[in-house]
């Protein structure tokens, strides 16, 4: 017999044709399952985003807990009775799997007897084994859908609550920063007018006596006021500008001193690319002139500023002549300066006050960033 004739008989055998048709049907069934799976997945994605962007903001975050819980229970009951995974995916997939072995045996099935056609023979070989014909017995609980519903709901709730908590924490931090900034501005408002008022009194005394130092003093005061009103409003200013302000203040104070008071003001180091909190040193210098000057006794006010690569070292020393100095030293000026240091130099400064009998010393070390 011709080989081509044999292959033609094989290819056009009814069993081969039935197997090919079954394989095509199987492929279409799997494509349909993929679509159902995609629809199943998109359904739970919809539940997730509905809960995240609608239910939680409009109900849970507005403390409408009963309505929110009612919607959750309603969805849970709906999933329980509809059983989307069980009905849409599992049963269909299970039916196809039951048909697969019979289709694999189709080509090896013996020919049908004369009194039975091929179609009846195929149905007899692929008949199901359960009461429903699909190999399943009764209705089972769809645990997959129920668990997935609870997980999706819980993840959405946890995600949105976590985001809300982060926003709340950020608002608290911003609020604390605004509060600290307001306190810092208040501290500046307390410090600035104080020494300006004293300086104006000194210039007034010079004007009364027709001193030749009146005009230069007014010019220095003008520079100080420009610095305070225009530059000292920032948290940090160039160190050179701060030193110039201190020098002008010391020069203005020298105008009212007599021969018994000596002022030793020294500055060392480079100011290039160095910054400092404005007027942070002014409190101590002002206090030195306020409590360390006497018209009767010899006294010395020593002020040293030493600038290194990474630090600014400040030292101020004076004799105490005021009887109420102890209470004043612990008053608003130094307390405000301490708070400013805490805010502007967290863990980057060392501040010490030493008082021995009639000597008062201030040591301040600031760590700079540039």
């Amino acid at each position: 017999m011709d080989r081509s004739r044999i292959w033609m008989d094989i290819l056009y055998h009814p069993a081969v044709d039935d197997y090919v048709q079954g394989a095509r049907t199987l492929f279409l069934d799997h494509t349909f399952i993929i679509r159902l799976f995609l629809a199943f997945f998109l359904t739970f994605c919809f539940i997730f985003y509905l809960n995240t962007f609608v239910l939680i903001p409009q109900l849970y975050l507005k403390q409408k807990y009963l309505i929110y819980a009612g919607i959750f229970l309603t969805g849970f009951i709906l999933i329980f009775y509809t059983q989307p995974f069980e009905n849409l995916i599992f049963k269909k997939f299970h039916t196809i799997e039951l048909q697969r072995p019979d289709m694999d045996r189709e080509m090896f099935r013996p020919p049908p007897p004369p009194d039975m056609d091929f179609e009846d023979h195929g149905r007899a070989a692929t008949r199901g084994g359960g009461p429903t014909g699909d190999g399943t017995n009764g209705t089972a609980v769809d645990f997959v859908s129920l668990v997935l519903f609870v997980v999706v709901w819980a993840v959405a709730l946890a995600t949105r609550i976590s985001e809300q908590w982060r926003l709340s924490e950020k608002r608290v931090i911003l609020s604390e920063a605004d509060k600290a900034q307001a306190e810092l501005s208040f501290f500046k408002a307390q410090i600035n007018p104080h020494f300006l008022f004293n300086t104006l009194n000194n210039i007034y005394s010079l004007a009364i006596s027709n001193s030749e130092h009146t005009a230069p003093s007014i010019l220095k005061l003008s520079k100080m006021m420009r610095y305070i009103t225009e530059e000292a409003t920032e948290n940090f200013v160039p160190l050179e500008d701060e030193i110039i302000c201190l020098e002008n203040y010391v020069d203005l104070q020298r105008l009212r001193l007599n021969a018994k008071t000596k002022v030793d003001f020294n500055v060392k180091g480079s100011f290039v690319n160095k910054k400092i909190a404005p007027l942070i040193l002014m409190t101590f210098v002002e206090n030195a002139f306020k409590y360390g000057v006497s018209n009767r006794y010899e006294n010395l006010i020593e002020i040293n500023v030493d600038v290194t690569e990474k630090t600014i070292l400040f030292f101020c020393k004076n004799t105490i002549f005021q009887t109420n100095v102890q209470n004043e030293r612990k008053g608003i000026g130094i307390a405000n300066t301490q708070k400013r240091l805490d805010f502007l130099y967290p863990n980057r400064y060392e501040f010490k006050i030493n008082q021995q009998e009639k000597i008062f010393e201030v040591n301040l070390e600031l760590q700079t960033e540039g």
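The first strand starts at residue 237 and ends at 238. The domain at 199-367 is CATH 3.30.565.10 (Heat Shock Protein 90).
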